[in-house]
Design a protein that fits this description.
Blueprint (H helix, E strand, L loop, with lengths): L2 E6 L4 H12 L6 E8 L1 E8 L2 H7 L9 E7 L14 E2 L5 E9 L2 H10 L9 H16 L3 H11 L2 E9 L2 E10 L4 E4 L4 E4 L11 E4 L4 E6 L2 E5 L5 E2 L4 E2 L15 H7 L1 H9 L3 E2 L4 E2 L2 H4 L2 H5 L3 E6 L1 H18 L3 E5 H4 L10 E7 L5 H12 L3 E6 L5 H5 L2 E4 L12 H21 L4 H22 L2 H11 L4 E6 L4 H15 L2 E6 L16 E6 L5 H13 L3 E7 L11 E5 L7 H19 L18
Helix pairs in contact: 3-4, 4-5, 7-14, 7-15, 10-14, 10-17, 15-19, 16-19, 17-19
This protein binds 6-O-phosphono-alpha-D-glucopyranose (G6P).
Length: 611
C-alpha cells in the first residue's frame, strides 16, 4: 500500500506532488509527507489526510522544482507524524519515500545502530535510507551506487525514491514487488505508484520492472539493472483520460463508479462478441483456447471482491464447460502446499493487478508448471505482466476503496471466458450460447434500470442506518452476491454483516435472527427460487426484517418481505450482474447516512501490496 509521487522538471514540484498524492490517497491515508529540494532538503509530514499536510505546509517555503511525496497506510509503526514519510537518514543528507515492506529490517536496524546510526521512527523505510547512507559512506561511492548496492541487501518489497542534498538535481528510484510508473514529459519527469498523478501532464510512461533503478539527473533518464547494466526503457502510450479519474459531479467516487456500470460492463464485452453470428473472441485467450478446453482443472486465485467474482466464475465454468473449478483465497493458497499440475489452468483475478498475495500465488503456481491467466483492470500492472496471458476488464480507473464496477466487469469477462470454453468443448449448446449472448448484451440497459431504484434504496437505507448487524442470504449464482453485499456494507459503514448461502442459515446464523436483525435476501427467479422463498419464511418466523431483491413482477415474495427491491428479469447465470447493484447502493447510502468516509474507509486500502 502507500502511494508515492515524485517530480523533477521546470515547474513547481509541490502542487504537482500534492495533487498526485490526492489521486493516490485510495492507496493509504493515515499520514502524508513531502520532501522538496530548495537549497536545503526540506521534509514536511503530518498524520492524517493529504489535506492535513496541505494545511500544514501552507505557511512554509515549499518552492523547488524537484521533490517527492508519500501517502501512507501503516505497516510498521502507528500512524503519526514521526512514522510518516519521507524519512531522512541519520545525517539528514538524504531522504526516502517507500511503498512496500522490508522484511529483514530488524536485523539491518540492529547492525546500523551498532555502527552509530540513529532512528526517529519505527519504520522499516528509515532503515532502508540509513542502509543506503551507510553503504555510501563505507564505499565512498555515489548515491546511485549506494542505492544499487542496498538493493542487494534488502529482502522484501519496495518502490522507493531517494533525494540527496549533495545531488540537488537528481531523483533516484527503484522497485521490486511494489509498482512504480515513470512519466516522461517535455523536459520533466514524474514518478508515481500508478499513472493517475501523471496523465494530466503526459501519456508517455515506462512501467519500471523489478530490480530496475531509474536515475533522472539534469534532464536525462538512465535505467539500470541491479547488476548495473543499462536498460532500454519501453515507453508506452496510455489511453487514460483525466475525466476518467475525476468525480464528474458525483459526491463520491464510489457512487460515480456504481453509476458507471452500464458503461464499464459494455466496455468489458466490447469487441468480444457478435451476437448475430454467435461469435466470441478474446485476444488474450485465443492461443490458450485449446489449453483451456483440455484443462483438467481450473484454479482461481484472488482476494476480497475479486475472490467473490471468482466464486461466480466457478458456477459459470462448471455449468458451461464442465471443468472442475476450485476458488482459493490467494493468501491461503500461497502458504499451504497446494496440488497444482501442469494441465491445470490458474486464473488470477485482481482489479489493481498489484495484490501481493495474488502475485505470490501466481509465482507458486508458475513454479509448479501451471498456465496462468490474469484478469486485471489496471493496464501494465504487476499481475498483468506476471501472467502467461490474460484479459483486461476495461472498467476504467476504480478509485473508491470499496470495489463496485470492477466486480461487475470481472464477472462480465469471466462469463465470456466460460462461454468460450464451453462452446469450444461442446458442453454449451449453440442455441443456449446464443440466448446467453443476447441476454448479456442486454445487461447494461438492465443495470441502468436497476440504478433507477436509487431513491427507493435510499429510503430503505434510512430505516436501517442504525442497525448493528446485517445478514445477507443468497443461493446458487446469488450466493457470491450475498457475500459481496455483506462485504460492501462492513467495509464502508462498519456495520457487522455476514454473507451466507441461504440454506446454511439454519446451521448457525439463524440463531442471530430476532426483530432487530435486517436480513437481505437475494431471491431473483432462478432454479432455487422455491427454496429461497422457504428461507425467507424461516427468517419471518423469527421476526427478522426481510429486505428482498426480487425479479420484476414477483407476486409471492412481496407478501412476506418488509421491503422488496425489483430488478429486471435475466438468465440466472447473469443474475449477479444485476442483483449486486441494489446491494452496492444500499451499503453506499447507509454509510453516507452514518457519516462514514465511503471512498476512504478506515483501516482499508485499495491496493494491498503487503501480504
Ligand atoms: C483490497 C480492496 C478490495 C479488493 C481486494 C483485492 O482489500 O480494498 O476492494 O477487492 O483488495 O484487490 P485486487 O486489486 O487484487 O482485486
Amino acid at each position: 500500500m502507500c502511494g508515492i509521487v515524485a517530480y523533477v522538471g521546470h515547474r513547481e514540484a509541490c502542487p504537482i506532488i500534492i495533487k498526485g498524492l490526492k489521486r493516490l490517497e485510495y492507496r493509504g491515508y493515515d499520514s502524508a509527507g513531502i520532501a522538496l529540494m530548495n537549497g536545503d532538503l526540506n521534509v514536511y509530514k503530518k498524520k492524517g489526510k493529504v489535506a492535513d499536510l496541505e494545511a500544514f505546509i501552507s505557511d512554509k517555503d515549499v518552492h523547488g522544482n524537484i521533490g517527492m511525496g508519500h501517502t501512507r497506510w501503516a505497516t510498521h509503526g502507528e500512524p503519526n507524524d514521526v512514522n510518516a514519510h519521507p524519512h531522512y537518514s541519520s545525517s539528514r543528507n538524504i531522504a526516502i519515500i517507500h511503498n512496500g515492506i522490508i522484511e529483514n529490517y530488524a536485523a539491518l536496524k540492529t547492525l546500523l545502530i551498532s555502527k552509530g546510526h540513529t532512528f526517529q521512527s519505527e519504520t522499516d523505510s528509515e532503515v532502508f535510507i540509513n542502509l543506503i547512507e551507510d553503504i555510501r559512506i563505507n564505499n565512498n561511492c555515489t548515491l546511485v551506487e549506494a542505492v544499487r548496492l542496498a538493493l542487494h541487501e534488502v529482502v522484501g518489497a519496495y518502490a522507493i525514491v531517494v533525494l540527496s542534498k549533495d545531488d540537488p538535481n537528481q531523483l533516484v528510484a527503484a522497485r521490486k514487488g511494489s509498482p512504480l510508473v515513470l512519466g516522461i514529459g517535455k523536459g520533466e519527469y514524474f514518478l508515481a505508484s500508478d499513472a493517475t498523478p501523471i496523465i494530466e501532464y503526459t501519456n508517455e510512461v515506462v512501467y519500471l520492472k523489478d530490480y530496475e533503478l531509474a536515475v533522472i539527473k539534469d534532464g536525462e533518464l538512465d535505467i539500470r539493472s541491479k547488476e548495473d547494466i543499462k536498460q532500454t526503457p519501453y515507453i508506452q502510450h496510455l489511453e487514460l483520460t483525466l475525466d476518467s479519474i475525476e468525480k464528474g459531479g458525483y459526491e463520491h467516487f464510489m457512487l460515480k463508479e456504481i453509476f458507471e456500470q452500464p458503461r464499464s460492463i459494455m466496455d468489458s464485452m466490447r469487441g468480444r462478441m457478435i451476437v448475430e453470428s454467435n461469435h466470441l473472441m478474446m485476444g488474450g485467450i485465443r492461443e490458450f483456447e485449446n489449453k483451456f478446453a483440455n484443462a483438467e482443472r481450473i484454479l482461481i486465485v484472488a482476494c476480497g471482491t475479486s475472490w467473490h467474482a471468482g466464486l461466480v466464475a466457478e458456477y459459470l465454468i462448471e455449468d458451461f464447460a464442465r471443468i472442475p473449478v476450485e476458488v482459493e483465497y490467494a493468501s491461503e493458497f500461497r502458504y499451504r502446499n497446494p496440488i497444482v499440475r501442469e494441465r491445470d489452468i490458474v486464473i488470477a483475478i485482481s482489479q489493481s493487478g498489484e495484490t501481493a498475495d495474488t502475485l505470490a500465488a501466481i509465482e507458486l503456481a508458475k513454479s509448479k508448471g501451471a498456465t496462468i491467466f490474469g484478469i486485471c483492470n489496471v493496464v501494465g500492472s504487476s499481475i498483468a505482466r506476471a501472467t502467461d496471458a490474460g484479459a483486461y476488464t476495461h472498467a476504467g480507473p476504480e478509485i473508491g476503496v470499496a470495489s463496485t464496477k470492477a466486480f461487475t466487469a470481472q464477472v462480465t469477462v469471466l462469463t465470456l471466458i466460460s462461454m468460450i470454453i464451453g462452446s469450444k468443448r461442446g458442453t454449451l449448446e449453440t442455441s443456449k450460447l446464443h440466448q446467453l449472448m443476447a441476454e448479456l448484451e442486454n445487461i447494461p440497459a438492465k443495470v441502468e434500470q436497476a440504478l433507477a431504484l436509487d431513491e427507493q434504496i435510499k429510503r430503505i437505507a434510512a430505516q436501517y442506518q442504525d442497525a448493528t448487524n446485517f445478514i445477507y442470504l443468497g443461493r446458487g449464482y446469488n450466493y457470491p452476491v450475498a457475500l459481496e453485499g455483506a462485504l460492501k456494507l462492513k467495509e464502508i459503514s462498519y456495520i457487522h454483516a455476514e454473507g451466507y448461502p441461504a440454506a446454511e442459515m439454519k446451521h448457525g446464523p439463524i440463531a442471530l435472527i430476532d426483530e432487530q436483525m435486517p436480513v437481505v435476501v437475494i431471491a431473483t427467479k432462478d432454479s432455487s427460487y422455491e427454496k429461497i422463498v422457504s428461507n425467507i419464511q424461516e427468517v419471518r418466523a423469527r421476526k427478522g426484517k426481510v429486505i428482498a431483491v426480487v425479479t420484476e413482477g414477483d407476486t409471492t415474495i412481496p407478501t412476506m418481505a418488509d421491503h422488496v427491491i425489483e430488478v429486471p428479469e435475466t438468465s440466472e447465470h447473469l443474475a449477479p450482474l444485476l442483483s449486486v447493484i441494489p446491494l452496492q447502493l444500499l451499503s453506499y447510502h447507509i454509510a453516507v447516512m452514518r457519516g462514514c468516509n465511503v471512498d476512504q474507509p478506515r483501516n482499508l486500502a485499495k491496493s494491498v501490496t503487503v501480504e
